[in-house]
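Record Helix-turn-helix domain-containing protein, 738 aa.
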Amino acid sequence: MADTGLGPELRRLRAAAGFTQEVLAERASVSIRAVSDAERGLRTRLYPDTTARLADALGLAGADRERFAAVARGRAPAGLGPLPAPRTALVGRTDELRALAALLTEPGLVTVTGTGGVGKTRLALAAAGEAAASFADGVAFVQLASCHDADSAGLAIATALGANAAHGSVTEVVCAAIGSRRLLLVCDTFEVVPHAAPLIAAALARCANLTVLAASRSPLRLGAEQLFPLDPLDEVSAARLFAERAASARRGADLTGSGALIADICERVQRVPLALELAAARVAHLGLADLRDRLSSQLAVLTGGSVDDDARHRTLESTIAWSHGLLDGPSRSALARLAVFDGWTLAAARALTGRDPLPEVSTLVDQSLVAAPGPADPHGRYTMLDSVREFGLARLVDEGAERAVRDLHAAWFLAAAESSAGAMRRSGQHEAHGNLAADLGNLRVAFRWFGASGHGEDALRLASALWMFWLWHGGFAEGRTWIRTALAAAHDADPSLRARAHWGAGWLGYFQGDYPEARIHASSLARLANASDSALEQRNALTLRGMVALADRRFDDAAGLLGEALAVAHRLGPDNPAGADQSAWLLAISTLNDGVGLTHTGRIDEASQRFAEARERFAELGDETYRARALRHLAAIRVLAGEAGTARSLLEESLRAVHDADDRFGLAETLSGLAQLAGSGHDARSAGAFEARAAVVRQTLGVVQHPFDAILAERHLGPLRDSLEFRAGWAEGAALGD
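=>
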């Protein structure tokens, strides 16, 4: 079953209805851009009103309508993180697919085992897609190939689940995120992190409705595990797979009457799917008889004629080695170097190969050793199957080039992270975030390499550069662990670098309501700032201390610190280490923050001026995310001033902005603003509904309500919370979700 995220689902439904994007947009009374962005994956969720309009236009009813609504809320049967789209259609495996999908109907652990290249991942994804409708709370997929131990695997699983609790171990975080939800967790390549099995055991023991589907060369060896051994293809399916791939490799090839040759070739590679694909790729240059003869001699030599239990795995390795031996020198070198990536763009590959990599990459694609990106892939990333990657890494070690290549890889992604840290604060910010999200596996590989190779400062630079990415991405647990680990390892790092790390860690803790830890980072940052002449560090220390004071309800202290931070921000110029663009952004956010302090000391008119100024500054920068936040803050002032109509207009404008940007964090804040507006008008039912929806989004993100809004909520909603109307509205909003 194909990816059932919002984009593919909307395209499928539109095509089934026979509509163009323009016709669907017109029938639903929505913009063409809304339809286009959703189908291209630029938006992964829709608001309920937009969802209802599209469902009406598509004529959806009953279960089909409910399914589409779930997809549009990001809670689709494949919705915690879309299942990866398969490169090719599944051939054969009809009985296995039916049997595996049936095993997933009950909570528990099912592990698909088998030799490398036998198709474990492909079958697991297909079965997850088939069974997805049974999981009311969705399917989460996590690729563990880039992890290196139980902790990193646990953090990857936590991120896939949207698990972002502020306190506790990774196990507690994961189990809390799952709770009583009925969901399917798909873990691929589990054999690389066998020590993570206790995490799965704990989750299954504490989460009664959880089903785990693992793909692994070896069992997890847990008591509740149901093993699903996957054998090579049967003779008919193997011949079909080879014939289809051979015809693709050599257009117009007539394989009629070649059944015996094809059957012989299939037996030479023991009907292992990946080995079949590698052999079929050679049909572009060899006749079937020549291919059979070469396979017969080469594989016998490479395997030593072994017929032991590992024969199939040895056959796969031998098939890869044979394909590798037929490559020219540059292509062999490229394969070894590209194996360090967890997916790559041509630009990233150039950094490692030192030249245009397209000729070699094209050769590897032609030989089925590398998968090319799909035509609609917004990130254009090439991938390498795990078995091939493992082979390539071994060749890299044999060449004695591993350290140099891994250094280049890590340096490339460090530069990308530091560049994106600035790009996420201006026009194009969502594209920058999307690129980092697509390279999360590479970022993990780079961070691990920096730590293992003694580059502590580089690890700290990488962790510090990503704090806003983690905020947007929802990976608080992983982000905080990275910074904490890097700070401990690089205790003698440059003070300005440590200051940046404390800044990022402080904010990640702050947004999760971990104010004690945020206070610790604020104090460390203040000490470093006092010891330096850096206006940037002084401004950052004052800001974090001011926001901690706000959380403590020390309003005068907060206003004083945030006002002082704004004064320092005005002194930041183009020569500031952050650069001219970042100086402008820091001035904009400091202006907004000063308005926060003024609001809670009763200086409403001054606060309104600050928020209006911040809105214009963010607009000039192209930062729509924070422009929308300034709109929400302006609305809060208008609510306090009793100007409900103006407040509503501002919140509606903010709602459109977060809708266009798919800004979940901003959505939660906007819903809170709407709740406060309703509460100020004594509409308890609407206030409860909006507040509940905001709470659902915050829970999904793993954040708490910002003190700015929490304080106002106490004022506007406090008297209403015990009313029957508020409770009824809360129940309605919680059921509706986001």
